Every structure is written in structure tokens, then in C-alpha cells.
């Protein structure tokens, strides 16, 4: 009998698995931009541990293995900033990313009072853009990441988080 993927809040014990998964998942993004210094690849394990204590962090598990993760926090303007969404390459395309987004959006709206959700993705990241638009995000602008990668900024109202299921 096969196992199903479950979504749950991350714990401190998940830090190393999240760290390794993030490094694996963002290799393709780094290759796309020819920049292996993108933020998710240079983040330290201690920084991931810190985010686990301050941010809203969810993981997707297949048995005991963390196969996906996402983080979010409330910004000074009251929006929920969602980031570092990743799913193990062997499990992409099965709706896990959308499920992780939904969990983060629900918690950020219900527990932390988010009025809207905001995320960023690289301008060449067509798969990411397709997912975000499919679940209701709309482009609201552009920015440049601290790593120099041109980013597209997307948002949606918090009342629409249920659409991501």
C-alpha cells in the first residue's frame, strides 16, 4: 500500500530536511538564471531554524520524509509574504505546491490576520508563474531580488485563499 503526502506545520526537528530540500529544489532556478548565489541557495541552516520560530512554516511529508515546504510572515503593511515554496523534483506536478500554499494562506489569514497574500518569483520561472496564476495570484509589479534576479511580484486578497485547493 502506498503512502499519501500529508501537509502539517513544521517543527524544529524539520529544519535540516527543509534546508536540504530547499537546496535541491532551487538548483533548477539557479540554472535558469545562471546564478548559484540566489537567496534560497545561500541561506544558512541557522537562518532556516530562526524562520521556524518566527514564520508560519508548513511541510509536505511522505512518511517521515519532508518533500515540500513553504514559509510566510506578515509584513509591515499587513500583507502576508509567502516564499521559498518548494516540492521535491520527483513529486512536482501532483498538486503538492498548491496544497502547501493553501495551508500557509489559511494560517496567515486566520491566525495572523493577513488581508492579502504576496509572493515573488523570478521573471523566467514559467512553472511557478503558471501555478500562482492558477490559484488566483495576479501580477502587481516587479522588483529585483537581493541576489540581482529580476522578480515578478504577485498578490491576491486573503479572502480568496480557499481557491487554492
Question: Overview of this structure, please?
Answer:
The chain has a seven-stranded mixed sheet, sandwiched between helices. It is built from six helices and seven strands. The protein has helices at 15-25, 27-33, 39-42, 45-54, 96-110, 126-134; strands spanning 5-9, 56-62, 65-74, 80-87, 116-122, 138-144, 150-157. It is an alpha+beta fold. Helix 1 (15-25) crosses helix 4 (45-54). Helix content is 34%, strand content 32%.
Q: What value does the Rg take, in angstroms?
A: 15 Å
Low-confidence stretches: none
Determine the mean pLDDT. Answer: 92
Helical content class: 25-40%
The gross shape turns out to be globular
Strand percentage, roughly?
A: 25-35%
Q: From the helix content, strand content and strand pairing, which structural class follows?
A: alpha+beta
How many helix segments? 6
- H/E series: EHHHHEEEHEHEE
What composes the largest sheet? Answer: 7 strands, mixed
Question: What's the β-strand tally?
Answer: 7
- Write out the strand line-up for the largest beta sheet, numbering strands in chain order: 1-2-3-4-5-7-6
The end-to-end distance, rounded to whole angstroms, is 25 Å
Q: What is the element layout, followed by pairings?
A:
Layout: E1 5-9, H1 15-25, H2 27-33, H3 39-42, H4 45-54, E2 56-62, E3 65-74, E4 80-87, H5 96-110, E5 116-122, H6 126-134, E6 138-144, E7 150-157
Parallel strand pairs: 4-5
Antiparallel strand pairs: 1-2, 2-3, 3-4, 5-7, 6-7
